[in-house]
Amino acid sequence: MLSLLSILIGTVALILAIPAILPLLGWLNWLIVPIALFGALIGQFSSGTGARNFCLAVAAFCMLRLWAGGGLF
Known about the structure:
Elements: H1 2-17, H2 29-44, H3 50-68
């Protein structure tokens, strides 16, 4: 059950990350990274590792976008 919840949180974070790719919306990643990391924390307590890895991948993508945009753009 925790795995399903983690995947749901990761999917919400991924859907929110799609518009954050656009220029001048990079600041949204500051909101998305904690959501994805919370999903990874929930996934840590599940029996599988796929949900946790999915949330970590979403968080890593958003952190990369933050780094590329200088933390704001």
